[in-house]
Amino acid sequence: MAPAAAAVWTDVATGVRVRQSRAFMMNSAVLADREHTIVIDPGVLPSELDDIAASVTTLAPQRVTVFVTHGHWDHVLGPAWFPNAEILAHDRVAAEVKAEQARVLAEATKTATEHGESWTRGFTPFRTGYAVSGLHYTRRGPWHLVFRDAPGHSDSQLTLHVPDRKLLFAADMLSDVEIPMLDRPPDVYRGTLEGLRPLADNGAIETLVPGHGSIARGAGACLRRLREDLAYLDQLEQRTADCVRARRSLDDTLAELDGMEYRGKHDGPFPMRDVHRENVRIAWTATRG
To answer: 177 is in which domain, residue-wise?
Structure first.
């Protein structure tokens, strides 16, 4: 097995650190406190999970909560490294993870191998000790936490706002390397972003941590991410609707919307052409329906 890369941690607020994985630029976070520590989406590679767990062990908090932002395979690997932690997630996550157990293990094994590591722990679905949905507030030690449903990319997705730090963990949204990745019609994703817009407009978000990509710092940068993703959805919906009104086929619509410009079309760490074409398919089907 290749030696693990040196850990790269970024301090984003007092007691809040983010570690970015070598796989998919996925961000994990630790809200560190001796009374109660929150770990967000620990992942993805075994050496990285070891490093995150070691950082929490060194702190020796009285209690640990692992927050799983949604049920996609790369976000659900961490609980095995924190066997005594409470698992906090959307109330759909446990069922999703159970249904996808084989795929989670297959993807974890494949990704570890591609990065010169070995996945040896298997994967066992976990129970959610604290399941939430909708708009939900809770306190864990010194941490005031506000969770919001965030469908559009995943029905089990939640964002986490830490109001007193003006900090948003956006799950798999608001990235600088990915466009919106739809699993529902665009208006569902739009509704999620519009629900966050008052926070961004009123300066309640000054640091934004996406599931994948770079951290946005400053209220202006956070608002720009939101506006850019809404603008992409605007164009996707409008141009798809124009094609449907003109009675154009799916293939013709795909060809027409291949001309759109969007993040990751020409460069960047993750090619987004296939994601965009899937978004067009979803939008076209929804518009016709």
So the answer is: 9-227
The reply to whether 125 falls in a domain is yes
- Tokens for 217, please give them: 């710092």
C-alpha distance across the termini of the chain, in Å: 51
Report the domain count for the chain: 1
Residue 89 forms beta bridges with which residues?
Answer: 131
199 vs 211: CA distance, rounded Å: 19
Cα 91 to its chain centre, rounded Å, is 17
> How far apart (Å, rounded) are the C-alpha atoms in residues 30 and 283?
36
The residues with which 10 forms a beta bridge, in sequence order, are 18
pLDDT of residue 88: 98
What is the C-alpha to C-alpha distance for residues 234 and 228, in angstroms, rounded to an integer? 10
Question: What is d(CA 251, CA 249) in angstroms, rounded to the nearest whole number?
Answer: 5
The domain that contains 129 carries what CATH number? 3.60.15.10
Token pair 């965030």: residue: 150
Structure-derived torsion over alpha carbons of residues 255, 231, 194, 20, reported in degrees to the nearest 10: 90
Residue 266 lies in a domain: no
Q: Over the Cα atoms of the chain, what is R_g?
A: 19
Examine residue 243 and state whether it is found in any structural domain, yes or no: no
- Distance, CA of 153 to CA of 148 (rounded, Å): 14
pLDDT digits (tens, 9 = 90+) for 245-268: 999 999 999 999 999 999 999 988
